Amino acid sequence: MTETNNQRKANYKINPIYIERWSPRAYLNKEISDETLNCLFEAARWAPSAANVQPWRFIIARSDTDRAKFLTFINDGNKKWCDKAPVLVAVTSLKNWKVDSDDINPTHGFDTGAAWGFLSLEAIRQGLHTHAMGGFNREKAKEVLEIPDNYDVHAIIAIGYKGEKEMLDESLQQREIPSNRKPIEEFVFEGVFRK
């Protein structure tokens, strides 16, 4: 793993997999094997969750027909590039503690975010990349994918093998680089919150 070594540097010693994970837009139209794809969801399976509820649910689109359904609710800016990814995934979570309960689980989104994080790191380990998108119509996604009312849709993820930036529309090519991160001093506070 050396793709991002020139662009990103950690300030503290961490496993390089965290730095290697980034969100490209250029994907090869190359199929992902069932075995490899299942490794990503196996990693997500082991994420922590409140009361071990495991509220996350993933809806995958691998066929041309299923990917076309996803493209009906993804914003135009994301359609420009994500239509080449071999797998699209809707990340959803059960809002209640149980399917047949009205009691809201206040950590369902937080826990599902942990599962997505585990999935994204396993993708890098498997030689894949992921790109999570918030630019989509949630209401339409729920309708098209037949998602019940007691579930939230958080993101759509593109998964695939990274392609060359020249595959992208010219307007996106300049953005096809790993982004840096704020130093921890900007978001870790001792004792009380600081602006």
Automatic annotation (TrEMBL):
PANTHER family: NAD(P)H NITROREDUCTASE YDGI-RELATED (PTHR43673), NADH DEHYDROGENASE_NAD(P)H NITROREDUCTASE XCC3605-RELATED (PTHR43673:SF10). Pfam families: Nitroreductase. It comes from Ornithinibacillus sp. 4-3. Gene3D superfamilies: NADH Oxidase (3.40.109.10). The keyword Protein transport does not apply. Belongs to the nitroreductase family. Residues 20-77 form the Nitroreductase domain. It comes from the Bacteria. One of its GO terms (molecular function) is oxidoreductase activity. This is Nitroreductase family protein. Keywords: Oxidoreductase.
